[in-house]
Amino acid sequence: MSANASLERERDGAADAAAEVPAISVEGLTKVYGEGQDAVRAVDDVDLSIERGTTVGVLGPNGAGKTTTIKSLLGLVLPDDGTVEIAGIDAHEQPRAVYRHVGAMLEGARNVYWKLSVRENLEFFAALGGQSVAAARDRHDRLLDAFDLAGKADEPVNDLSRGQKQKVSLACTLARGTDVVFLDEPTLGLDVEASLELRRELRRLAEEEDITIVLSSHDMDVVEDICDRVVILSEGSVIADDPVDELVGVFETQAYRITVEGPVDGATRELLDVEFDAGEWTETGDRTQFDVTLADGDALYDVLDVLRDAGLSLADIDGHDPDLEEVFLEVTGRAEGGEDA
């Protein structure tokens, strides 16, 4: 084997080994604020492993530990226990080395300098990572095009709309070409069209450029559209960590809104209430409408049997699967000791 072939094989082996290292690895992450009876366990023994090129949503109610967890991953908060590795590098022992791999947008448009132009902001943030203007020019041009900012490249950020400022902030987060990106409410302030464009771009970055994205958002539609996986935190602990499709599929209940011709007598209403948890009864004109939530699809036939036995004609039926927001409320309600706990 020639020396060049041997060197090439070594490089390929190193690349394969690097690809097997998780983009983010967290073990036993713990952070406590205060002491004694006043101590608050903001993060409690969190374990996470996030593969390269995946998009993960981090969700949880206020006070769940999301912000502390993310800031610990970024090295902005020093945990009391546990380890954090980014691309195989310890985030707290080698913060400068980790910085080369990580970009973050934690405060929306406040991340950028409003008196500088859009392009000057991109160049500034790239320079912080040691990149020259010339080396980053092609990437910045792609970002300007992707976020529909090319026509505003030389305008001060202060003169842009709120949505455009948000786009600039995200573009600056990506200006250094890092392989791990943390985003907090990236679609905040964007109109529907701009939000959809941003979602498509984030998916492209993950799928085509192998960028790992950790996303925190209260917009469940955004999380459901963008993320491969969802991690739900409650009281500092991970209470769910599943692919989006599987997490939604955990809840097999199906909600239906049923409309029948004519009024529904009291006995039939009571039977439907007791057997199928019917509710939201409304009468409009010569029709009656109500909602039921069923454990499985077969139970719907039982509801229809009750209606038929009562001499009622079905006018309309509409069903929907649970979405991520419903799952989130259900999971956090159970974890916090709700009635389903």
TrEMBL record:
One of its GO terms (molecular function) is ATP hydrolysis activity. Keywords: ATP-binding, Nucleotide-binding, Transport. Residues 24-260 form the ABC transporter domain. It holds the Pfam family ABC_tran. It comes from the Archaea. InterPro entries: AAA+_ATPase, ABC_transporter-like_ATP-bd, ABC_transporter_ATP-binding, P-loop_NTPase. Belongs to the ABC transporter superfamily. This is ABC-2 type transport system ATP-binding protein. It comes from Haloarchaeobius iranensis.
